[in-house]
């Protein structure tokens, strides 16, 4: 699992909880367009917390991951199991994204919501490092 920015900066040590959840739920060779977010106690996005995390060292980041977990919001699937899917229509990639986060027998439940309020797919609220996904499109 490699968590990195578009510029190639690695974030594995900065957001270990996102790496753990991604590794557990995504097949090898998956590349997605995601945004890392931090929800405040009031349910708002907390950009300052993301900035603090970005400058924290690995030890501090691990501690913050336990008390102020960050999450990822998935927008698109670019590769799945090593295959480029960007040539597929958005509706197909959206379906692939929903399948990635569908409930698994004996695993964690899914329940990602969408920006339009309809049921989507993904890791349920309370699942470490994952929050309801917002969709564009």
UniProtKB/TrEMBL annotation:
Pfam families assigned to the protein according to its UniProt record, in alphabetical order: DNA_ligase_A_M
InterPro entries in the cross-refs: DNA_ligase_ATP-dep_cent
Organism domain of life: Bacteria
Region (Disordered): 103-137
Record PROSITE patterns: DNA_LIGASE_A3
Residue intervals of the ATP-dependent DNA ligase family profile domain: 72-108
Protein name: ATP-dependent DNA ligase family profile domain-containing protein
Protein species of origin: Nonomuraea antimicrobica
